[in-house]
Write a structure and sequence with these properties.
The chain is an alpha/beta fold. It has one domain: Guanylate Kinase phosphate binding domain. The chain is globular.
Length: 159
Amino acid sequence: MSKIIICGPSASGKDHFRKKLQGTGFIYAVPYTTRPKREDEVEGHDYHFVEEAEFQNAVYKGHMYLFSEFNGWYYGISNVQWKNSNLFVLSPNSISQIELTDRKECAIFYLDIPVLLRRERLLSRGDMPGDTIERRLKADEKDFKDFIDYDFRITKPFL
């Protein structure tokens, strides 16, 4: 099964792009995370929200194909999800964990949207419990520094 991977910093349009692809029949791997749930998010639809101990236990038992830490929270995709899904939203760190044989079956879309627009979007959302816009932008800058493992780079925002 060929896989589509969407990658981009905060407020770059990842969820919008993902939902468009899901609407055409792609099977989205709902990630696991330890971060707080946003007001508009639905358990099992946007994320599987789990406690840190539960997440670490899944990693320890080898149930996670990919996992990473971003901004103090953990995110991951299970082995079962990797096998049975074809649409993912991943960080550069997670992308670097994809096995070489699996990477050949992936198309990675990097949403490299201007920071001023992303800042505007973050301000208008106001959906970041336990976080700040500046912290997220700074973390994104660090996370995406020297990121080159993508197949397609999109620089114009989705409408």
